[in-house]
Amino acid sequence: MKDQAKLLRNLKSTCRAIRGTDGFTLIELLVVITILGILMSLGVSGASAIRNQAKNAQARNDCAGLSTAIKAFYSDYSRYPTARRDDVALEPGTTPEGNSEVIGALTATDATLNPRQVMYYENKMAKKGKSGSGYTGGLAEGALFDPWGSTYGILMDGNYDGKLEYGGSALKLPEEAKSISGGVGVFSLGNDKEKGILSWQ
User: Fold this and answer.
1) Fewest Cβ atoms nearer than 10 Å: which of 26, 73, 88, 168?
2) Domain count of the chain?
3) What pTM, to 2 d.p., does this model score?
C-alpha cells in the first residue's frame, strides 16, 4: 500500500512537471526538421545507388549471356545469327529494331535464321515504361532491352577475318577498349553513356 501511494505521488509530481514546461522553441524544431531532412536525403541517395548497382549487375549478366548465346549459335551453324555477311554493328536504340534480328534467331522465333528452332537465349519479359512507352530490362517485341530502356548493342565478326573493333559513336571508349576478341561483343550504354557496360572487358 505504501509503495502504491509513493508511486501515485511520483506520478502526480511528474505530471505537474510536464504541464509546467514550455513547448519546443522554434530553433529546436528547425534543428530537428533539418536533421530529419538530411537523414531522408541520405536514405534516398543510398536507395538510388543500390538500384543502380542492381541494374549494372543485370546488364553485365545480359551482356555475358547474350554473347555466350551468339557463340553457341555460331558453333552449331558455323555462322552468326544474322542474314548479313559482313561485320555487324548494331547500335543501341529505344525501338525493337535495334537487335530484333539477332534475338529472333537466338530465341527460335525466326525459322529462317534458326531452322532447327534451337532456343539459345532466354530472358524475362521487359517492363513497360511508366509513361506507357518504351521497355526496360528484358525481352519485348522480339528485342532485348537493358534496364535503362535501350536495346543492347551487338557486334559480330561477320566477314570472319578475326578482327572486330567497336567503331560506333554511342560510347566514347579509349582505343585499348575498342578491340574485341572472340568475334562477338555485346554492350549496354548503361547509366554512364561514356563507358557503358561491355561483354569483352
Assistant:
1) 26
2) 1
3) 0.75
